[in-house]
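User: Predict the structure for this protein chain, please.
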Amino acid sequence: MTRPFRAAVVGTGAIAGAHAEALRAHAGRIDTVAVHDLATDRAEAFAETWRIPTVHTSIDDIVKSGVDLVHLCTPPSTHLPIALRCLEAGVNVLVEKPPTLSLAELDRLAAAAAGSGAHLATVFQHRFGSGAARLRALIAAGDLGRSLLATCHTLWFRDDAYFAVPWRGKWETEGGGPTMGHGIHQFDLLLSVLGDWERVTAVAARRSRPVQTEDVSMALVEFADGTVASVVNSVVSPRQTSSLRFDFERATVELDHLYGYDDTNWTITPAPGSAAVDWPAGTVRSGHADQLAAVLDALDAGSEPPVGIADTRRTMEFVAALYASAATGQRVRRGEIGADHPFYRAMNGDRWTFA
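Assistant: Here is the predicted structure, written as structure tokens:
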């Protein structure tokens, strides 16, 4: 592409600032030309802060303005109609998590993308830090031996006031609790490292927060290569941490951070009797800017951006399977949640609630 890409930011809540920073970091490759928010005063303030030249009052104006990429930063229940309008018009979309409220909605977006040739990618920025890239490379080279066991814990704290925002804590507007909106970043990274999951056995509960959804969940996961893993998601944990541990034949690799990591957050411990594994220093912190760089590389090449619909669907199917297992008490297999399954249309099966 001879000219810089043109981007618009839709939605000006807290996460939109991370997108604006990422766009600014790639100012030579992409220009932020427009912003839209239902609250025009907020959009105008955002435009002034980030020096964005145009405030549009509708999504139609955005898609007709000639933008190449929409950064979708609105509440989850609005993702489907906005992304659908963009994709049908041939505009690429980078959407915040969760990308949709259900597998059914995601499949609608997949159909729209296939029809227009536009792309949809989901913000799962933890895949893009240098530590995660290095771990995947070591696995691919066979340097760590077989994968045996993993743990993935997102133990966060959100007080009651956090859920006073009207769309939070409700199935119909947020799609789920910490499984859907908080832990999803960590277990998406887990899935990107370990590959296809096969079976999920889970529990979920509402222990403290004034929500319809769960505020904690736990899952035992079996992977295609035989690896077993535990996944814990919480918004009731006073000491907050985001941690992943991978036990291989020749080493344990660990990541401990909170909302983003750099190389100092990773450790590698050789197995007794095994040689030390080289872990060269990297410079890339997990964040929106590095995922955006990969998206721009793909758009330059005319290819599917990373964390496109297929990768996104694997993670979203895991979420649906966790909820289905927790609701029914049954182990759920990958591929089991088809179009006629109640948890295909909604993450609570249209009926399951804790309220």
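The domain at 5-125+291-306 is CATH 3.40.50.720 (Rossmann fold).
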